[in-house]
Amino acid sequence: MFDHSPLMASIQHDLLGGDVVFPTCFQLSIAIREALNQPDISVASVARRVEAEPLMAAKLVHMANCVTFNPFGRTVYGVEQAIYRVGFNVARSVSIAIAMAQLKMLPCMVPYVGLTNTIWERSVHVAALMRQLAHLEGSATPDEALLCGLVSEMGVFYLLHRCTGIPTYSRSMDHVLDLLSQHSQHVTPPLLAALGVPEEIVTALKPARAPWGTPSRQLQTLLLEARRLQSLPDPIPPTEPRATWLQAVNHQVNELRNSL
Question: Candidates 1.10.10.250, 1.10.1040.50, 2.60.40.10, 1.10.3210.10; correct CATH number of 5-13+23-259?
């Protein structure tokens, strides 16, 4: 087992000191965090920030017109209307999705492109399943479930970004994979806290089980089930208890995945 302590000591110092340095592609997510942290922030104020980022504005309007958020086919065209329809947590989810997509494309991340694509596609699939499960079971807010799934493996991306350019890791994918398996779970919660993700999601993604009956425990349960469903083979085995339900929600799940 490789000794990751030099790198992790530096990362822990940043996390504990509140000096998390995000890549510049996270500037939009941080701006959204700062806006949503303001007391009594209005939808119009958030919309003005989003409108300054054409890609996010386009994604939000597109998502607001998907069947998932628009079952009655009433088209919206403006950012403010879109945010009213999808809510602040979905706006936050879109900003993070954009940041993650941009992070994957940074030149320093090219050696890990296969790994990051696989993990991101899995996270998006899990997030879409979590939202549908939350609707089905009523155990958590669907949009919080979506955000929880989407950011559930953020620690992986952060660790990959931090180890780029370090020769020990550049020369050995085995060392990189060992780093991720040992530490990504522990890095994710403080990163999310720094991005202003709701506390119940931060707690849900800690390695320890959240107290029974709390929103965080409900999210943990949904995440576990969504990951199980995401890993099912295609076609779905006829013995799968949720096979009929998965077929029924397949369109909404795929539409949401494509939107993100």
Answer: 1.10.3210.10
